[in-house]
Structures are given as structure tokens and as C-alpha cells.
From TrEMBL:
Stated name of the protein: D-2-hydroxyglutarate dehydrogenase
MF terms in GO: (R)-2-hydroxyglutarate dehydrogenase activity; 4 iron, 4 sulfur cluster binding; D-lactate dehydrogenase (cytochrome) activity; D-lactate dehydrogenase (NAD+) activity; FAD binding; metal ion binding
Organism encoding this protein: Anaerobiospirillum thomasii
Domain 4Fe-4S ferredoxin-type: 663-694
Catalysed reactions, as listed in the record: (R)-2-hydroxyglutarate + A = 2-oxoglutarate + AH2
A Gene Ontology biological process term: lactate catabolic process
Cofactor: FAD
UniProt record similarity statement: In the N-terminal section; belongs to the FAD-binding oxidoreductase/transferase type 4 family.
Annotated Pfam families: FAD-oxidase_C, FAD_binding_4
Length: 1031
């Protein structure tokens, strides 16, 4: 039995007093001092880990003013702050030992949009893609591009002065900032923008703290302007933290303190809102994807591509490509990056042409394309390593290619080894003409240390993301990180570059003096002007002039240091959790994103794959500190025979245990719908459903299960029995008294009614054999429909129509009676019970498979369970049988066999029917989220199947419907279930003819019926109706 964990890190006394007073103040946002909330914010996408004392989520700028003003009290002088955006930083910029101010939850206002002036004002928590989706109807966009644009906030972009693809033309974030509103260290709110002439004089004459800021900064910048021009390198990715070069223009005597704030990483104040300059969307966009036989060739080709007039040139190496090929993202992109026969692609340049003059851009691209094709015909060095090229000019193709490129950041963290490709010296920048030579020496350095790596980046501006592969749980690899960092500094100096091109300084602030040279005291003076007490993100950028203090150290505590406290055997057994690299893909704001419905509902970062993985890692670490061998404990849980003494201990623990991290962990995972989308959508493939199931198994070994599990764990046994008597049980289910008692006792709501005709009776009526395993074996049928207790109890019509459809097209079909699949047991953490039932079912299905019978399931979630959870938990005991999804079976059948022959015989009749009123419409596919995630080609398979019958099927990009098995029927999940439904499916269904909407998942159809009061149809229903009319 796992022990209680009560001695986890508590708040320091002064912070506890501050937090208590803040909670009772005018602060209207959330104050999170839960250990798990602090734990989530202890990491970002860097290698570092630092536990904050508290995380606050302001709702307005005045909330931030309240927080900072309160801290001005003498008793709170030790309190420090750091702002946080999307938590995607790769250098620990927002990590703090103090109070973290996270604006991403509430500060998402967009105002003062003026399409004519091409400007908009946004709050700091607005996500970049969210803003651009809003601007699209005006043919405008906020142009600085990021790989993390679906979760990066504008406030975070300001703090880093972020940039990415296209910056050679579009510039950095600071190039598009008209003004910045910011809460200063004293709690006052001020807006900074470009000022000159009388307006500058007015600012310089202001009283108080703000006036001092203007006067001192004006003097500092003006006095040092000439030296700044000498020291700061003339690069597209100029130096930030602080941008002394662009904050003052001597030629016009113009002061722009907003330029200092961009790239300041929250060390000068807390940004609340920003007025942005917007860019017109290009009228023409296309990509030229060029392939090379070496990465060096791709780099050396950059300058000719820039001279050809490209908007941007992005480079990807073979490491990234090979990782992408193992990820579902490849299904969307492989058509646009086709293999070259006889060659191994070692590098790719993604060259974009875009602009307002479509004809001119098209001409430039076509000319370059023709030149490259000619070059591929040359031999040896004259070929320049180019092996092929292809043009992609469709919106879908461009999105797919850049989708793969954006996912590269996370993919590099998913390498299947203990050494992970990690970020630390990975946005260095040199003049583009020197990039190839610089990277050659960088690679030589890594090769000399025996360190593998992956690379991708922006060759047009001389920036390459280099991710060395290190196992930071090893002290020797941590020392390699330090050595590589120091050696790279020397290389950058040799090639006249700088250290931080777009990802900020953070824990690399220690190198600031090297690049600022004699201007470093000037930067310190700027810091002192805004934050003389060093309370805003201390340790980053620089220490205020005149104050003692130190910067965060390059060898500070890393995630690997804490992971090292977990024994190797346990880390290997729970590799799923250890693989999370903090990339934050699970924080995507997009409603159509398969990840993560729990996070999108709660906006609580803890309730996300990253959060759940972090909880598991910390839980393992705390258990290890107590000397607990979790591997042995898990095995004991799976093999222990229930006994009264153990049960009595669980009763006692349930009643008496109070302060326990196990309970905090449990409360947070209750909102997880176990959709398993993270298993494929997460770049590191963190399988949260499995992690949570494993934890629950051990949690319920210490505590009693809730009453709902009396129903959930036995549903697959009870439902087939109860569904035999619908006339008895349906009136009971309809009664308000039953609904009250079920909710009160078992915590379930809205339980569906059983099919009015039982499966047994329906099969008799339609002459379909419903058989046990032995009967199915003796039947010699072509196809065995593997039913499940849910559809067999609630959707008899669907199973029958599926069987009749298969019979109509020429197959001999039988139904296997509904045996226990076990999916619910594994979701609820009853892994021992699951293994017991799954082993029996696997044995049955293996016997049928050995008899060369084709097995086809109907419900996606339960069918996929046979290839997913069965494989994970049964191992070799599972066997090698396959249960096909309907679309997989149809795809195979279209190639040969009865289905192929049926369509060939009736093609004219099918063509005629497909134009009738009943079938000639556009059909819309709402696919089950698990089906989309674990079978990426599912949607395409359904489209191809329907097309073969002459029907048009349009997939609708939706994620979870909010039901997720029995999750949506649990009383405590009602708000989440309804919210997730409203955010996604509801909006999409309302746009369309309901009768044309086809839904593949049983739980999804149950949710539709519950929410809309109408029964949704499965695609097979339409196919059955169609073939019924053929003959």
C-alpha cells in the first residue's frame, strides 16, 4: 500500500502572509498556492526547474496593480515577482522562486481594432493564433511567426521580443509594437510609446516615478547612443534585454521606451496590454520545398535563395524529418515532401514566396524552381547537393508543411532514448553568410564530445536551432551542457553573432556582459531606473546598478537533477511521464485540437498532459524519498488477494487521512476524459490515460473506491443482462425517483434507455446469427462482428444495420455475443480486473482469428482498446489477432472481395442513386476523438469508402464531444461535459443539416441525443440505406 505523502514543500512564512492578505484584498483573480499548481509552473520548455511560492491569475490590470502595491509594504520587501505567458520559454525566463503572475487565464481582451489604421489593442494573455483568427476576416494578421503560436501569448512575445519564420521581411515583435501598457514596480500603470518633440518634453517634465524613468532613460540612451551603434551587431535578430539600439533615435531625438520593454523578460514591469501594428495578408502564398543529400548543402544554399526574393527560408535536418515520419503529423505532410528515388534526404529548405503582387511572386518562384530542376541534372559538386524540389501552393499543403515544421520543437524531445534533444544554446544567430561555417564548427564540437543532435531553423536570418542530445539525469551530461554553452560563446564571437536570437536570455543572462561589453553597466542602470530593489524577475538580464546580487546560474537546478532522485528502474518503468519536455502543445487554444479537452474546459494548466506528467514525476520522486519502490508496489497491487485486514486499512485511510499529496493528485486527474489523444498528438507522446490509470490502481489500494465504481466496474456485465428486459427497466430509468437515487447514491445522471428491441430478438427478426465463440467458429462465416455491451444494449439498430449492410454486399456475417471488453475498468484504475477479463476476451478472439475469420468491431473506443490497452497490459498474452474498425474493413474490401465486386456490378445504379435527393447531399463526418488520434487515417478511410459508393463526405474538425464513455454521465463532470460540448460539437452541428451529420462513436451519439434530443446516425446507416435501394 502506498504511504501518505504529507511533507511536500509549503509556502515560506512571509509569502504565506502576503498570499493571505492578497486573498482578502481587492484582487479579483485566482490565487493558487496549491502545491500542484506551483509545481506546474516550476517548469517551462527549458531544462530548468524552480518552484514558485504562489501563482496568481489576474483578471484585469488593476489586479496586477493590487498585487504589486500590496508588496510595497515594508513587511513584504522580500517578495519578488515574475510574469508568465504561455510557459513555452526555452531558457527559463519566467521561472521564479517568488510569485508568478500568469495572465494567460483571464487577460484575453481584444479592443480598439481599427482595420483602416491596421492596429489593434490586446491584453497580454491573448494567444497569437487566437488573435490572427479574429483578424482573418479583415485580411490582416499579426505577422511575427512562432512554432508555439497556438499557445504563446502576446505578453510572452513582448517579453522575449519573439520572432520566427518570415522575420527577414516581417521583423520581430518589437517592430510591430505601437505602445505598451505596463504595471511598474510601485504598482502604477503607465503606457509607453514613441515620443518626440513637444510630447517628449512633456514626458520629461512629469513628476514622480514615471517622470524619473523618462528623464533617466533619455539621458542614458542619448549619452551612450554612439557606443551602442559600435557594439551592437547589425543583425536581423538584434540584441535584446535591453534593446539600447532602437529605444532612442538620435537623428530625430525620439525616445521609445516600449522598445526597452520588448525583450526585457518582465524585469522592468508587468505588461498588461499592447497596441499592435498589423500586416495585410498576402494575396499570393506558395512554398518551394528543396531537398538535399546533406544538411551542409541545405545551409550553403541559403544565400542564393534569399537573393531569389524569398520571403523566408526554413531548414530542417534529417533528424527532424525522421522523427516526423514516426508521428501522425506525417500523414498530413508526406504528399508535400515526397521521397526522391535513389537518394536519402538529409536536409530540406522550405522556401516561401508571398506578397501582394501574385504575378511577380509566382514568377520569382517559378524561375527559381526551373533553375533548381536544371541543377539536379548536374553531376558532382555542380549539383550543390540538391536532389529534388516540389511546389506546394494549396492552403492545406502550406498548413501541413508548416505544421510539421512547428511540431519539430516538440518532436526533438521525443527521441526514443535516454538522451533527449534539449534546448539551451539553440537560438544563436550569426550573419547568414557565415551560418554554414558556424554550424560546421558547432557540429564538430558536438561530434568531438560524442553528442548527437538535431537541427532546424531560419537560415535566411542566420539562426539555427541546435538541440544536443543529453541525459540530464547524469551529472556528466549536465557538465557537457555547461561546456557546450561556453564553447558556443567562443564560436559566436568568432563569427560576429549573438547568443539569443529569438528565445530570450533567462538562464543565459550570465553571458550578457560578454555581448554588451562596456555597455553592460548601462543595461544595469536601465534596470535600476525601473526596478531599483530588484523585485521584478530577479536574476534575469542583469542586476540593478549599485546593488549586490547575482544572476541565475547556468548550472542551476534542472529537471534532470530532480528526476535523478527517482531510481533508474522506476524512471524506465514510467518513461511515459519522464518524456514530457514541457513543450506545452497540450495548451493549444484551438477548439478543433484533439488535445486536451480537460485543459480547454478548466484553463488549469495542471489539468493537462504536461500537468499530469508533472504530477506523476513529482509523485514518483516523493515516493522515492520515502524509500518506496513503486515498481514493487504496483506489482503488489496487481497480484494481491483481497482480504478483510487490507479493506479495514482502506476504510481507516479514507476516513482519517487529511493532508496527502495522493489526494491532491487524485482530485486533479478527475477531469481527464481518458480520450488518449495525447498519446499521438503530444510531440513526446505522453500517454496520460495510462499514467492516470496506473496511479488510480495504487490510489484505490490505499483508499476506498467511490460508490459510482459499483456501477462503472460492473457495467459491462450488468448491461447485457438488464437490456434483455427493456419493458421492465426503461420505465424505471425514466422515473424521476430513480434519477434522484442514482445521482444521490451512485453519482450518475442522464443514463440512457435500452433499445426497445433486444439484440437477441432483432437478430432473430433479420436472420442474423448471434453466437458465442464456439458457435461463431462453427459458422464458418466470412466476418464476425465483435459486439460490445454498450452498443448491444443501447444501439441494437446500429449493429443490425451494420450486419445487414455487410450481408447485402456479399459477406456471410455472424455476431459475437457481447463479452466484457474491459475498457471502463482500465480507465477507472482497476487494472487487475481488466487483465482478468481482457485475457479471456483475447483468448476468444485469438481462436476466431486462428480460424481465418475476419473480426470487425463497431464502436471506435472499444475496438481500439483491443490494439491499445490489450497490448499494453497483456503483452504476449494478447496474441496477434486484429479487430478492424468499420472503415479499415471497408478500405480492404474496396481492393478485393465481395465489396469490390458489389460496387463493380452496380456502379451505374450507385451513380444514379448518388444524385438523388436522399443521397446527393454533402454528408458531414464527426469522428470519435480516440479514433482520430490513434488511427490518423480514419477520416480519410471513411471519405474513400463513401466516395466508392458515390457519396460526398466532408470531415468536420472536432475534438472530444464531452461524453467520453461514462465520463459525461458522472454527476461531478456535468459542467465540463456541457462546456466541452458547447465549445465544439454544438457549434458545428448547428451550422449544418442535422440529418446529414454522421457520427462514428457510440458515446458521441449518446451525447448528441442527450444534448439535442435527436438521434445521430453512423456512416454505416447511410451505406445500408443506399445498398437497400440498389436491388
Amino acid at each position: 500500500m502506498i504511504p501518505r505523502v504529507e511533507n511536500f514543500d509549503k509556502l515560506k512564512a512571509d509569502y504565506q502572509l502576503y498570499v493571505n492578505e492578497l486573498k482578502s484584498s481587492a484582487f479579483a483573480g485566482d490565487v493558487e498556492d496549491r502545491y500542484e499548481a506551483r509545481l506546474l509552473c516550476a517548469t517551462d520548455n527549458s531544462v530548468y526547474q524552480l518552484l514558485p511560492q504562489c501563482v496568481i491569475f489576474p483578471k484585469t490590470a488593476s489586479d496586477i496593480q493590487t498585487a504589486l502595491s500590496l508588496a510595497s509594504k515594508k513587511c513584504y520587501k522580500s517578495i519578488v515577482f515574475a510574469p508568465r505567458g504561455g510557459g513555452t520559454g526555452t531558457n527559463g525566463q519566467s521561472l521564479t522562486h517568488g510569485i508568478m503572475i500568469d495572465c494567460s487565464r483571464y487577460m484575453k481582451g481584444v479592443s480598439e481594432l481599427n482595420p483602416q489604421l491596421r492596429e489593434v489593442t490586446v491584453e497580454s494573455g491573448v494567444i497569437k493564433d487566437e488573435l490572427n483568427d479574429l483578424l482573418r476576416e479583415h485580411r490582416l494578421f499579426f505577422s511575427p511567426e512562432l512554432s508555439t503560436s497556438n499557445r504563446a501569448t502576446i505578453g510572452g512575445m513582448i517579453s522575449n521580443d519573439a520572432a520566427g519564420q518570415g522575420s527577414n521581411v516581417y521583423g520581430r515583435t518589437s517592430n510591430h509594437v505601437k505602445s505598451v501598457s505596463m504595471v511598474l514596480a510601485d504598482g502604477s500603470l503607465e503606457t509607453f510609446k514613441e515620443v518626440s518633440g513637444d510630447e517628449l518634453k512633456s514626458c520629461l517634465s512629469r513628476e514622480g516615478f514615471v517622470g524619473d524613468i523618462y528623464r533617466k532613460c533619455y539621458r542614458i540612451l542619448k549619452d551612450n547612443n554612439a557606443r551602442v551603434k559600435e557594439v551592437f551587431p547589425k543583425l536581423n535578430r538584434f540584441m535584446t534585454g535591453y534593446d539600447l539600439d532602437h529605444a532612442y533615435d538620435a537623428s530625430t531625438d525620439t525616445l521609445n521606451l516600449a522598445r526597452l520593454i520588448c525583450g526585457a523578460e518582465g524585469t522592468l514591469g508587468v505588461v498588461t496590454s499592447i497596441t499592435l501594428d498589423l500586416t495585410p495578408m498576402p494575396e499570393f502564398r506558395a512554398l518551394l520545398v528543396i531537398k538535399y543529400d546533406s544538411f551542409d548543402s541545405a545551409l550553403r544554399h541559403a544565400m542564393p535563395l534569399i537573393r531569389a526574393g524569398a520571403l523566408s527560408v526554413e531548414t530542417v535536418d534529417s533528424k527532424v524529418l525522421n522523427l516526423a515520419k514516426k508521428d501522425p503529423v506525417w500523414y498530413s505532410v508526406r504528399e508535400y515532401i515526397q521521397e526522391v528515388e535513389g537518394f536519402d534526404i538529409q536536409g530540406v529548405n522550405i522556401v516561401e514566396f508571398a506578397g501582394a503582387d501574385a504575378k511577380a511572386e509566382q514568377s520569382k518562384m517559378q524561375s527559381l524552381y526551373e533553375d533548381i530542376l536544371k541543377q539536379t541534372q548536374k553531376e558532382g559538386k555542380e549539383r550543390g547537393g540538391i536532389i529534388g524540389a516540389q511546389i506546394t501552393d494549396s492552403a492545406a499543403g502550406i498548413a501541413a508543411v508548416y505544421g510539421m515544421r512547428k511540431k519539430a520543437v516538440g518532436l526533438l524531445g521525443s527521441a526514443a532514448s535516454k538522451e533527449k534533444l534539449v534546448a539551451f544554446t539553440e537560438d544563436t544567430v550569426v550573419p547568414p553568410e557565415h551560418l554554414a561555417d558556424y554550424i560546421l564548427e558547432f557540429r564538430a564540437l558536438l561530434d568531438s564530445m560524442g553528442v548527437d543532435y538535431g537541427m532546424f531553423g531560419h537560415v535566411d536570418v542566420g539562426l539555427m536551432h541546435v538541440r544536443p542530445a543529453l541525459d540530464l539525469t547524469k551529472e556528466e551530461d549536465k557538465q557537457k551542457l555547461i561546456t557546450i554553452s561556453n564553447e558556443v560563446v567562443k564560436l559566436i564571437d568568432k563569427y560576429k553573432g549573438q547568443m539569443w536570437g529569438e528565445h530570450g536570455r533567462g538562464y543565459r543572462s550570465c553571458f550578457g556582459e560578454i555581448y554588451f561589453k562596456d555597455l553592460y553597466p548601462v543595461a544595469r542602470e536601465i534596470k535600476a531606473v525601473f526596478d531599483m530593489d530588484n523585485r521584478l524577475n530577479p536574476g534575469k538580464i542583469c542586476v540593478p546598478l549599485g546593488m549586490e546580487g547575482s544572476l541565475v546560474a547556468l548550472d542551476s537546478v534542472m529537471r534532470g537533477d530532480l528526476d535523478r532522485q527517482i531510481p533508474i528502474s522506476i524512471r524506465e518503468n514510467f518513461e511515459n511521464a519522464m518524456n514530457c519536455n514541457g513543450n506545452g502543445q497540450c495548451f493549444s487554444y484551438q477548439q478543433s485540437s484533439l488535445m486536451c479537452p480537460s485543459y480547454r474546459y478548466t484553463k488549469d494548466h495542471v489539468r493537462s498532459p504536461k500537468g499530469y506528467a508533472g504530477l506523476m514525476r513529482e509523485w514518483l520522486r516523493l515516493m522515492a524519498k520515502k524509500g518506496i519502490n513503486i515498481n514493487a508496489m504496483e506489482l503488489e497491487t496487481l497480484t494481491r488477494t483481497p482480504n478483510p485486514v487490507h479493506f479495514a486499512r482502506r476504510v481507516y485511510n479514507t476516513i482519517c487521512d487529511k493532508d496527502d499529496f495522493n489526494k491532491a493528485y487524485y482530485e486533479n486527474i478527475k477531469t481527464c476524459v481518458a480520450c488518449k489523444s495525447c498519446k499521438t498528438q503530444c510531440p513526446a507522446h505522453v500517454n496520460v490515460a495510462d499514467l492516470n490509470s496506473r496511479f488510480l490502481a495504487m490510489y484505490y489500494d490505499r483508499y476506498l473506491r467511490p460508490s459510482m465504481d459499483l456501477v462503472a466496474l460492473h457495467a459491462e456485465v450488468l448491461l447485457p443482462l438488464m437490456s434483455r428486459y427493456p419493458k421492465l427497466f426503461n420505465p424505471i430509468l425514466k422515473s424521476s425517483l430513480n434519477a434522484y437515487l442514482v445521482k444521490k447514491i451512485f453519482k450518475f445522471v442522464d443514463l440512457p434507455l435500452f433499445s426497445s428491441v433486444t439484440l437477441h430478438r432483432a437478430c432473430q427478426m433479420h436472420n442474423i446469427a448471434l453466437l458465442d465463440t464456439d458457435g461463431a467458429l462453427n459458422s464458418k462465416a466470412d466476418v464476425v462482428i465483435v459486439t460490445d455491451p454498450f452498443t448491444a444494449s443501447y444501439e441494437v439498430d446500429g449493429l443490425v444495420e451494420f450486419a445487414l449492410f455487410l450481408q447485402k454486399v456479399g459477406y456471410s456475417v455472424v455476431m459475437l455475443k457481447p463479452y466484457v471488453n474491459g475498457k471502463l475498468r482500465v480507465v477507472r484504475g482497476d487494472r487487475r480486473g481488466f487483465i482478468n477479463f481482457a485475457a479471456k476476451q483475447a483468448s476468444r478472439l485469438q481462436r476466431l482469428s486462428d480460424a481465418s475469420m475476419t473480426l470487425v468491431g463497431f464502436d471506435p473506443a472499444l475496438t481500439i482498446c483491443y490494439r491499445d490497452e490489450y497490448k499494453e497490459l497483456l503483452g504476449s498474452r494478447r496474441g496477434d489477432f486484429t479487430v478492424y474498425l468499420p472503415e479499415e474493413f471497408l478500405e480492404a474490401g474496396l481492393k478485393e472481395g465481395p465489396l469490390h465486386d458489389f460496387i463493380a456490378r452496380h456502379k451505374d445504379r450507385l451513380k444514379a442513386l448518388s444524385t438523388t435527393e436522399d443521397f446527393g447531399k454533402t454528408w458531414y463526418l464527426f469522428a470519435h476523438c480516440t479514433e482520430q488520434a490513434l488511427l490518423p487515417r480514419a477520416v480519410l478511410m471513411w471519405q474513400q469508402a463513401m466516395s466508392a459508393f458515390g457519396l460526398t463526405l466532408l470531415p468536420i474538425p472536432v475534438s472530444c464531444c464531452g461524453m467520453a464513455g461514462m465520463h459525461g454521465h458522472m454527476a461531478h463532470n456535468q459542467d465540463e461535459s456541457y462546456s466541452v460540448w458547447q465549445q465544439g460539437w454544438k457549434k458545428e452541428l448547428d451550422k449544418r443539416d442535422f440529418d446529414a451529420c454522421l457520427v462514428t462513436g457510440f458515446s458521441c451519439r449518446s451525447q448528441v441525443l442527450r444534448m439535442e434530443g435527436k438521434a445521430a446516425r453512423h456512416p454505416v446507416y447511410v451505406l445500408y440505406d443506399l445498398v437497400e435501394k440498389v436491388e
